[in-house]
Each structure stands twice: as C-alpha cells, then as structure tokens.
Amino acid sequence: MELENMKINEGYMTGNIKYKEDIFGNEEGEITERLKRLSRNILLKYNYNISKEVGYNDIGEYHEYKLETIREINSKWEIHPDGSNFHNSCSTIIFYLENTFQQGGGLIIYDKDKKTIKEIINTKSDNGEVKMVLLDGKVPHNMESAHGIGIRRSYVFQYENNDEEFTKYKNYLLELKKKNK
Questions:
Q1: Which residues fall within 8 angstroms of residue 115, CB to CB, at 6 or more apart?
Q2: What whole-number distance in Å separates Cα of residue 22 and Cα of residue 35?
Q3: Pairwise CA distance, residues 134 & 146, whole Å
Q4: Nearest by Cα to 105 from 144, 72, 60
Q5: What are the tens digits of pLDDT across the range 144-165?
Q6: Contacts of 160 by beta carbon, 8 Å cutoff, 6+ apart
Q7: Residue 92 belongs to what H/E stretch?
C-alpha cells in the first residue's frame, strides 16, 4: 500500500491511497475488517494516540448518499465533532471510495466556533485512488451539500484515544470489576 500526497493541517490530515486493490483485493468480501486493520495501522503510523488494543471501542460505519435525479442533497449530519460514543476523545479516519456528484459532496472542516469554514476537502478521487482523511475527533466537520446525479460512498472508523483520561477510566472499570467479584 502506498500513501500519497499526505497533507498535515491542525487537527487533521488528508491523503490518497494509490492502489485501490490494496483495500479491496480481488474481492470486496471482508472489506470492513480489512479497512479496520488498515485504518488502525495508518492512525498509529501518523502518531494518533489511539489504543493499541485491537477491538477496544472501535466503531465502523458505511455511508452512502445517492441521487438518481438532478437535485440537491444536504447532509443529514449537523456540524459535529466525533466521539459522543466514547468516554474519552477519539480519532477518526474516513476512506472516500467514490464521489461522482457534479458538485459538492466534500468534507467541510470548521474552526472550533463551528461557524468559520477552515477548508472544504475535495473527496473526489483521481485515477481510481481512495481519498483519506484522518481527524482528531474534536475537529468540527460535516458533509458539503451535493448537487446533480451521483453517489458518495465512504467508510468511517473511530478509535478511542489512549490518553491519561482513557487510562484512568479503564483502571476505574477494572477496579469496579474486581470489587464486584
């Protein structure tokens, strides 16, 4: 697998995976598991502070938005940070497999105030590449409105961060478990 055009910003990174076959292989069978392993390895490679414990509070979702007539689709998601499913902060990685909308369908990154747009990330890929975004879960974002006939498909994975609060919480749960035996 070859990562290309990695661009580092405050709180997020973007890049491409050069060969789509590295993700899908010859069959799309176990794609979620393959992507989960890949996403964990990429986040660790770029020093995101996620738990090295495989399977601990991992969340994976498939998102698909499709328009078959010329009209506009607005994201069902409000401007949001990630991590509401975790006790602690999290890190997110998004793989954009396809975006064929005539306009839009990107990922909007906001300032902390959730009003000022910092960047609109183009999620359309060239030459069959897979676009990838790595986010600190605290970064507010949402989908850009899409226009025209097309489809946008992505996989999103979130991992709880392994920081001091995480360690304290995990130790607290272990103590409770011991007391209840």
A1: none
A2: 10
A3: 22
A4: 144
A5: 988 888 999 898 988 888 766 6
A6: 50, 51, 56, 57, 83, 86, 87, 88, 89, 90, 166
A7: strand 90-99
Other Cβ atoms within 10 Å of 176 Cβ, number? 9
Question: Which residue in this structure is represented by tokens 């986010």?
Answer: 135
For the chain, give the number of residues: 181
Is residue 109 within 8 A of residue 119, CB to CB? The reply is: yes
Locus of tokens 């954009």: 96
Q: What tokens were used for 72?
A: 């506009």
Residues 146 and 152: beta-carbon distance below 8 Å: yes
> What are 11's two structure tokens?
């709180």
User: How far apart (Å, rounded) are the C-alpha atoms in residues 110 and 105?
Assistant: 16
Question: Can you tell me which residue has the tokens 């097309």?
Answer: 150
In the chain, the amino acid numbered 39 is S
Decide: residue 166, CB within 10 A, 0-12 exposed, 13-18 middle, 19+ buried.
Answer: buried
pTM, rounded to two decimals: 0.79
Judged by DSSP in three states, 142 sits in strand
Query: In this structure, which amino acid lies at residue 152?
Result: R
Q: Report residue 84 as tokens.
A: 């509401």
Residue 166: pLDDT band (50, 70, 90) is low
- CA–CA distance from 33 to each of 16, 58, 173 (Å)? 20, 11, 27
How confident is the model at residue 40, as a pLDDT? 85
